[in-house]
Specification:
This protein is an all-alpha fold. It contains 4 helices and no strands. The longest helix has 41 residues. The N and C termini lie far apart (72 Å).
């Protein structure tokens, strides 16, 4: 009975880990395109200044939505990791070096403050794009009032 549950946990882990990376890649492409459009909108010949504000708001909203999606995917991955660690613990006869999930947790915990997890790196990107969107709104208003 244990083997089908182990396979289910592994498949669940793979599905959500791949989903997390795919979602983040989509976010990067979408926000990079929006940011490029926003930067291009500051060209002196651009005729739709209100579009800058819309693009800035879109960056903020997408950053928030994709951050929440990432948090959900992260939780689902952690659930699968917990199940896989449980199965590793059941294999007491196997050497500890084969218990990859438990070993990874120990190694990560030993790095302390200097460890940058996927979650932290992703959050940095979400904040950067969100701040870019937030900064563009007053810049757009300022540029519009100068012209």
């Amino acid at each position: 009975m244990e083997e089908p549950l182990r396979k289910q946990a592994w498949d669940y882990f793979q599905l959500h880990a791949a989903q997390r990376l795919t979602t983040f890649n989509f976010y990067l492409v979408a926000c990079s395109a929006i940011a490029a459009g926003e930067v291009a909108s500051f060209h002196k010949d651009f005729n739709f200044p209100a579009l800058r504000i819309v693009l800035g708001c879109l960056l903020i909203v997408l950053s928030f939505v994709f951050w929440r999606l990432d948090e959900r995917n992260r939780l689902l991955i952690k659930n699968a990791e917990a199940a896989l660690k449980f199965f590793e613990e059941q294999d007491a006869k196997d050497p500890a070096v084969t218990h990859l999930f438990r070993m990874e947790e120990r190694v990560t915990d030993s790095k302390g403050l200097f460890h940058l997890s996927y979650a932290m790196c992703f959050r940095i990107v979400f904040v950067v794009f969100g701040l870019l969107g937030a900064a563009s709104i007053p810049l757009s208003a300022l540029k519009h009032s100068v012209n």
